[in-house]
Design a protein that fits this description.
The chain is of the alpha/beta class and 264 residues long. 36% of the residues lie in helices and 11% in strands. The protein has a single domain, classed as Rossmann fold (3-Layer(aba) Sandwich). A hairpin with a 2-residue loop joins strand 1 and strand 2.
Amino acid sequence: GCDPKSDTTSLLFGGKSCPTIIETSSKKKAAGEEVRIEDVCFQRDGVFAMELGGPEVGRGCGGRGIIHGFELLEKLGFHDWGFDYVLLDFLGDVVCGGFGLPIARDMCQKVIVVGSNDLQSLYVANNVCQAVEYFRKMGGNVGVAGMIINKDDGTGEAHAFAEAVGIPVLTAIPANEDIRRKSANYQIIGVPGGEWASLFEDLAINVAEAPPVRPNPLTQDGLLGLFSPDETGGNVELVPATQADMRGGVFETRPSLEVIYDEA
């Protein structure tokens, strides 16, 4: 989990929160001790999980916390671990350099974008694609494997976005009450043999096999174009404001008080 909310792994552990790397590091440092892997890594059914965490609310920089967390992970042998797959769950605020770290440093092979059929979600997804393309131009190798459509209500905007930016849809998780309820109760939705098992089994295969591709991020107008103008206010025109508008309708031009000295 690479989100200051530290809630990525809670579903795996029935709602229990893992001690975060940032919090544990601070406590160990104060006690003059080193952080050990068993202090921050926990497992269930062959899945190993950790939370980077972040600073307390209103204190410090979340992105800087992410950078510090990865520095500690590298000391703990991050690049030598023998896992089949490593998933890094980041929030989409890649405008912050800390949250764009795995893309910038080629720490991941491919990016999976998660979004739904609403403008704000797709705006963030487009930002992620912009970050990937920016670092590709800077010599990076990370690409986008595809998009997971979450809470899909069938309206189609997320599918249209994926097609427009040139990335595949890896799966569409429906806006289903059973899924919502299981998630709210910290139950694993894709448990083998369950109702939704095949959906997540297919997703796992698609994620593993999908090659990383270079996306074609949309402009703001292109993103708005995925939605009806009636929904987004796309028919609104920009009207420049004047000084008179800013002062309640009355504005007198006054002579400048600047003193200009002529050269002798």
